[in-house]
Amino acid sequence: MDVTTNGSQQIRLKRATVPEIYRKAARILKSAEERKGSLKNLIYSSGFRDVKPLYALVAESCKHQSALDELINNTAGFQNVKPFDPHLARILITELIWGKGYLKPINARAIRIILELESDLRQALDSLNSQEENDSVQQISAPRYVRVNTLVSTTEKICNQLTGEGWKQVRSKKKSGYEGFIERVKGLGENEFILDFHLDFLLVFPSTAQFYNHNLLKSGAILLQDKASCLSAVALKSNPFYGKMIDACSAPGMKTSLLAALSNNQSSIIAIERDAKRCNTLRQTISNTHASKVTVQQADFLTLNPSDYQDVKYILVDPSCSGTGIISRLDSQRKSEEGANLELRLKRLSSLQSRLVEHAATFPSVERIVYSTCSIYEEENEAVVRQVLTKIGQSFQLEEALPWWPRRGTNRYDNPPDDVIGVKCVRAEAGKDLTNGFFIALFVRRI
Ligand SMILES: C[S@@+](CC[C@H](N)C(=O)[O-])C[C@H]1O[C@@H](n2cnc3c(N)ncnc32)[C@H](O)[C@@H]1O
């Protein structure tokens, strides 16, 4: 029995249980974290009768995961309430702040605790939001990413050479996870570097590190490539990774060269680029990086006749986009392009982007298509995926790209529970991942 006060009256409340939808949602979050299944499967197998609101709640909570973690860790009151299921806390806070805006019944212990902390939580959220605004106003300086070209050398050899030159390789504490890694990168000293948290061929240096004249760069043993840009080639990779590929929009060829490295020069790759000048740069990249099975073709991908490419299994579509995720352009672009101009430009870009992916889907043997942009706008990202699925959804399904990557797309274009987009797509954010802003979607042919 709980006691609460109403003016001078004391009211005795009977203890109630937390509603089933919240308990189920919390269990699903926990199982998803433990990689026991996809969100969709976990929701369906939860036995809950009304999957739509359950899905919406879980998806909303996933969307705000990092804010929720911060709120729970930084709201003083939470330290004094134990034991408290952190997954249930996340669900209840989601409902209170981004969902219905209220919680019932108030005499369930977990709900009462959250309601007692409500004003602290809202205050913590306000300061989190204003901190994020400050961060985005400040010039974000990305670290220098160095990709080891595994066609030429190995990560170990490159690390040894660099330490021989005076660089110091550091590590982040394993226990501190990805967030600890990001903090370690932010604190890199000017002669320090660290192996990337996710990609074993990527080294991370402070932004001041200079490699433009380095012999390793000249010999093609290393490339200067942002981490997010590496992720789309990695998302295309299947296990095994073998078969003909097309890179539909290739120049300057960073992703083509990574595809060649990921397939260990075992697969033929056709690198398409429509712009003649950029084709020259592409050819240079391909030759400098020893990507020996790449053929460069100057053409508009949309004019390629799919029946001439019967055995192509993989297509990467990384088309022209607004480039609004690129860190060096973040501030100036946002200020200079607003309103109607931007809307029109995004409309044009997204229409072309959709056509390119739809065309990729007409290649007779294609099994995997990756679509990526360095845009922060939903119009060029989730909305393109939604549009493309209406055309190719019978033959292709959207698959969860890079399941180990923490940041996912927005769920605004979802039609749950069967048709989800956000959680399946990857997003990278400058402020959180120290990479360019990026988006990736993976389409896989239905069997
Ligand atoms: C974002 S860049 C590609 C970057 C490249 N994937 C890389 O990682 O180095 C887009 C490129 O696609 C080319 N492009 C745009 N539309 C195209 C089309 N329809 N056919 C072929 N190339 C196209 C542009 O000229 C530009 O060079």
UniProtKB/TrEMBL annotation:
GO terms for biological process: rRNA base methylation. Gene3D superfamilies: Sun protein, domain 3 (3.30.70.1170), Vaccinia Virus protein VP39 (3.40.50.150). Pfam families: Methyltr_RsmB-F, NSUN5_fdxn-like, NSUN5_N. GO terms for cellular component: nucleolus. Residues 134-446 form the SAM-dependent MTase RsmB/NOP-type domain. Coiled coil: none annotated. Belongs to the class I-like SAM-binding methyltransferase superfamily. RsmB/NOP family. GO terms for molecular function: RNA binding; RNA methyltransferase activity. This is Methyltransferase NSUN5.
